[in-house]
TrEMBL record:
One of its GO terms (cellular component) is acetyl-CoA carboxylase complex. InterPro entries: AccD/PCCB, AcCoA_carboxyl_beta, Acetyl_CoA_COase_Trfase_b_su, ClpP/crotonase-like_dom_sf, COA_CT_C, COA_CT_N. This is Propionyl-CoA carboxylase beta chain. SUPFAM superfamilies: ClpP/crotonase.
Amino acid sequence: MADMYDKINELYDRRREIELGGGDDKIEKQHAKGKLTARERIDLLVDEGTFVELNPFIEHRCTDFGLEGKKGPGDGVVTGYGKVNGRTVFLFSQDFTVFGGALGEMHAKKIANVMDLAAKTGAPIIGLNDSGGARIQEGVLSLDGYGHIFYRNSIYSGVVPQISVIMGPCAGGAVYSPAITDFVFMVEKTSQMFITGPKVIETVTGEKISAEDLGGARVHNTISGNAHFSGATEEEVLAQVRKLLSYLPQNNEEKPPMGPIPDEDDYRPDLADAIPIDAVRPYDVRQVILQVVDEGSFMEVQKDFAKNIVIGFARIKGEVIGLVCNQPKFMAGGLDIDSSDKAARFIRFCDSFNIPIITFEDVTGFFPGVKQEHGGIIRHGAKILYAYSEATVPKLTVILRKAYGGAYVALNSKSIGADVVFAWPNAEIAVMGPQGAANIIFASEIEKSANPEETRAQKIEEYRQKFANPYVAAKYGMVDDVIDPRETRIKLIQALEMLRNKHEERPKKKHGNIPL
């Protein structure tokens, strides 16, 4: 008769079998593709020795299409919790060595269970995706499983941070889970996302395209905007995930973790020469960002998508902030469809998780053109207005140079709820630029002039002196203070400290109807 030690030995034998996943041969094939196994990825993501597995003994119960009697350790997914930088996270890691990571009924049940625990305990949920899609043999049960995951992605949105890491194929309905989550990471060359694959597209439309060109990391980080970060290796990507988590609170009821407070002079003399005084000359707004935030703290989000706006996390005196900045280096910093979507979603994330928002503004307006108008720039641009207006976190704006027209209003102006607006002394705040305004206001006078070009130049300068400066807006309270650029960091530190206990309510409602 077996004693307790025999039972314990059996337990460990079973665990070892589960930990092998699909077996040595399939693990070798995974490695040959330049990919790590589900468990190797977990070991890289969480602090050493902290991972606790949940539901390891779950298996499928399908008896159709040859699955009867086929073992699938853990049903193709490893779930559990651990710590990243000493803080709890919940995660699932799909195991491509077991049924190609395909999602079935019990596979989905494991993921749903760990998502529920993350929400109950108030901790981030991270999904490491590497799956061939729905397990066809299980039919509608697979589809139902996806539904349970999508539902939780949706109702836990804004409750706990949700991060998706694409580390292999993610196709068909499976892509909607990452799309709902807050941030998507991809590995270059080995990860893809698409609704319909290359073969289906070729059959239906006749178009030929590779999986990488259709839905690889480059495509989603530069063209579609479906991803936020990418890296050359899985190790690099997982290190980025760890870094991102260091800026985020555990849940919507906490504030982000404080970082080290640097012992440095907050007066930044280089800011006086950071941008050209000539309003039409381009520059890189990152040079301003790096002068204002704590050294080495800026983590840019979606850096290769919609480059005319820069967003990301940073710290000022150790406090986490979200940055939304026009980028005059691209499209003169004008707002278009993609940049509007990029900024609005980031603003809403920051507001969901108590992260103050700082806006560096240098905007010519919304980008003109038939393509933009027909593409819905009105609807997309309205998202920025909505996101800023809805947000109740501390909201600060620094007008660096140009602030023209409706884009000025949209980018966290006082009228839509900014707590504090600063302007540099070279700022031009107006309905439009001096050139355009003078051509309209003084059109008749210029036309009748003996020297139209000279008159135009005079009127442009007249308009600039009268309206295109920060003092008219400051006179009416639309700018709280015109500041020395070198004191920008000091002023922001003071404002953030003043707003630390800000509390603002919105009218009671079920939810708003953002112009999606």
